[in-house]
Write a sequence for this structure.
């Protein structure tokens, strides 16, 4: 509860809707959004709705508080891809109208104060900006605007799909102007979006080491965790490891994740015979961090990178390319890890070897990394979201 202009405003009973297609896949965005919903429902007592339209009967990817209400509008777009292009167009158009109708009906009854979505999906931007109900519209950017199209390079092989994606990005830019604010993960992305709407920066909440244990730096293991996709630059990691393995053949590289490149990576790992181990994603990833001594990240771009502070909270120093735009906001070069500029594979391998050859250096950097990772705890990050939502609530009441 706060007072504004002599009036009492009940912000402790805010209604917030998070709109997303589905929460099925175990990826960073889904995890971050669910963490926020859980915190706001449990800690702040807000009325939170997880609103989806393609969740169907699939389980939610991560644990969801029973205090978060789940609503699925049951409008399934993915069967459209089985149709020819002409039929797909008309069916898609009909489904979008159905989605808008069902969304409008829901928010007309629920009357949210705030609706939150991401910049990934043009249909979501149309959805929340076409609705006649008045509420604050909040966008979250989880991929830097300049890299959204790069996130699906395979679409370049299909000219029609590529043109469709370009059109979608045009829609996103146009519709974003109708939103109240965009929350970016770094200042570069915030600056890019600022030409369209008001922006600010709030870092991701990170799950920090819950085990009460820390890395001993005794195990001769290096770990990578992330999706097996082009963005992660794993071919460069293999080149780096070839150099390292020649000097330290008793060390092992472990990769944990899922993705379209997994089979290709397994074949390449088998061909190299360099102690490279490809694993599925692991629900006990903190236990896997504790079995290793160094964390590596070779992404081509990385707006934040949840896995870096996760690993750091276990005491692992990080070696990462200084790609746009996240690693430099997380790692302090030479203090809790190493940042490698210009995708310099030789320097990356040298820094990795430097850590391999000095347990004292690993321990020193790892100790600092543990403290550094605490910046991203929910107790420090989520109050920024609460403050933002309260300000939007004040603005809404002031307009009435």
């Amino acid at each position: 509860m706060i007072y504004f202009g002599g009036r009492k405003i009940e912000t402790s009973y805010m209604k917030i809707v998070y709109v997303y297609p589905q929460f099925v896949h175990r990826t960073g965005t889904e995890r971050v959004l669910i963490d926020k919903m859980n915190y706001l429902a449990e800690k702040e007592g807000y009325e939170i709705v997880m609103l989806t339209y393609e969740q169907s009967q699939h389980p939610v990817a991560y644990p969801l508080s029973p205090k978060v209400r789940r609503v699925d509008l049951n409008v399934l777009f993915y069967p459209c891809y089985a149709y020819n292009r002409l039929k797909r167009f008309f069916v898609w158009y009909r489904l979008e109208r159905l989605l808008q109708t069902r969304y409008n009906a829901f928010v007309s009854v629920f009357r949210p104060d705030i609706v939150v979505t991401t910049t990934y999906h043009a249909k979501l931007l149309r959805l929340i900006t076409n609705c006649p109900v008045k509420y604050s519209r909040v966008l979250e950017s989880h991929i830097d605007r300049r890299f959204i199209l790069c996130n699906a390079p395979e679409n370049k092989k299909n000219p029609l799909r590529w043109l469709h994606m370009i059109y979608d990005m045009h829609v996103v830019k146009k519709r974003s102007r109708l939103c109240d604010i965009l929350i970016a993960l770094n200042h570069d992305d915030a600056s890019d979006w600022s030409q369209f709407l008001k922006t600010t920066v709030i870092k991701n909440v990170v799950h920090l080491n819950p085990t009460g244990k820390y890395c001993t730096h005794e195990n001769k293991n290096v770990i990578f965790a992330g999706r097996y996709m082009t963005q992660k630059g794993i071919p460069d990691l293999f080149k780096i490891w070839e150099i390292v393995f020649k000097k330290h053949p008793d060390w092992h590289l472990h990769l944990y994740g899922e993705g379209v490149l997994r089979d290709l990576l397994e074949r390449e790992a088998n061909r190299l015979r360099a102690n490279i181990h490809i694993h599925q994603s692991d629900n006990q990833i903190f236990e896997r961090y504790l079995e290793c001594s160094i964390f590596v990240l070779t992404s081509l771009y990385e707006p934040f990178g949840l896995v870096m502070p996760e690993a750091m909270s276990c005491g692992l120093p990080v070696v990462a390319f200084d790609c746009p735009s996240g690693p430099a906001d997380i790692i302090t070069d030479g203090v809790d890890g190493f940042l490698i500029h210009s995708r310099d594979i030789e320097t990356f391998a040298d820094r990795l070897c430097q850590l391999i050859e000095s347990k004292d250096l690993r321990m020193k950097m790892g100790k600092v990394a543990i403290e550094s990772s605490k910046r991203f705890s929910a107790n420090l990050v989520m109050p920024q979201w609460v403050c933002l939502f309260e300000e939007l609530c004040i603005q809404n009441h002031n307009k009435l």
Remarks:
- DSSP finds 13 helices and 15 strands in the chain.
- The radius of gyration is 22 Å.
- The first strand starts at residue 2 and ends at 4.
- Confidence is low (pLDDT under 50) at residues 1-9.
